[in-house]
Amino acid sequence: MNFILKLLLSALAVVVLANILPGVSVDSYLTAVIVALVLSLLNFLVKPLLIIFTLPITILTLGLFLLVINALIILLADALVNGFAVSSIWWALLFSLLLSLLNSILHSFLKSENKK
Predict the structure, then answer these.
(1) What are the two backbone dihedrals, phi and then psi, of residue 85, each rounded to the nearest 5 degrees?
(2) What does 28-80 look like in DSSP terms, one character per residue?
(3) What is the pTM of this model?
(4) Is 40 part of a structural domain of the chain?
(5) Total domain count, the chain
(6) Does any domain span residue 114?
(7) Has residue 21 been placed in a domain?
(8) Mean pLDDT, 10 residues at a time, over the chain (116 residues)?
(9) Are 14 and 86 in contact (CB under 8 A)?
């Protein structure tokens, strides 16, 4: 149940950011849910491998290369999901940063309601 709620909150964040950022578009709410699901799967399966393979450059850049890895994950989701489009890696980088920020804000509301 908690996973579904987090997935829906992530989909809401995707829709909000797609409406704000001109370089990102989502066709429908169902597409946003699929994007949130694909992003969670890619973050679970692909991201750890990318981090291991790029460990030297990540250490050299003091972890800033992880931002590039997040942008690549967004672009990979763009390639996998029809109806979701990101125009460049720069929009993917900005989308990734804002999505992380918005998800943390939305999930903090979820945690505060669970404590009551």
Answers:
(1) -135, 135
(2) -HHHHHHHHHHHHHHHHHHHHHHHHHTHHHHHHTTTTHHHHHHHHHHHHHHHH
(3) 0.90
(4) yes
(5) 1
(6) no
(7) yes
(8) 89 95 95 96 95 95 96 96 96 96 89 68
(9) no
Q: Give CA–CA dist 116/103, Å, rounded.
A: 21
Q: Indicate whether 116 belongs to any domain.
A: no
Cα dihedral 106, 111, 114, 115 sign: negative
Structural domain for 67, as ranges? 2-109
Q: Which residues contact 21 (CB under 8 A, 6 or more apart)?
A: 91, 94, 95, 98
| Percent residues over pLDDT 90 in the chain | 87
User: For residue 115, what pLDDT is reported?
Assistant: 67
How does the average pLDDT of the chain come out, rounded? 93
pLDDT in tens, 41-60: 999 999 999 999 999 999 99
Which residues have C-beta within 8 Å of that of residue 25, sequence separation ≥ 6?
18, 84, 85
Q: Is 95 exposed, middle or buried (0-12, 13-18, 19+ CB in 10 A)?
A: buried
Tokens representing 36? 């949130």
